[in-house]
Amino acid sequence: MANEWRTRYGHAPPCTPSVFSTPWSYVDHLLLMPGSSSRIADMSEAYCVMSGDGMVTVDGETAAIHAGDAIPVDLGQSKSFTVTGNAPLELLVFGSARDMKTKEAFAADPANAN
User: Fold this and answer.
1) The domain that contains 60 carries what CATH number?
2) Which tens digit of pLDDT belongs to each residue from 67-97?
3) Which residues of the chain form beta strands (DSSP E)?
4) Separation between Cα atoms, residue 32 and residue 92, nearest integer Å
5) Is the dihedral of CA 9, 7, 15, 92 positive or negative?
């Protein structure tokens, strides 16, 4: 996650697994550009739409999203985002692992390193 974040945004994500002493795993700021789409790692997450317009698909159900919307995604659910407006889709993401063992495995993966 952190390496992909650095490639995409030029800096480390705001909060990675090492910051939390519970199954909470990360807080991220995601900016998707117009015309782009993204599938995000399998984790229980809550997304808050800060700005922009898009579509979200969670387990095959698709809905339009706009600033002020919140999208909960349970463990094991698939999710994807698509930007539909002319401006970026800005999301605040809160991620939580199933348990500490899962979080530790997530944190140990070099792709998620701080």
Assistant:
1) 2.60.120.10
2) 999 999 988 888 889 999 899 999 998 888 8
3) 24-32, 37-39, 44-51, 53-58, 61-66, 70-73, 79-83, 89-96
4) 11
5) positive
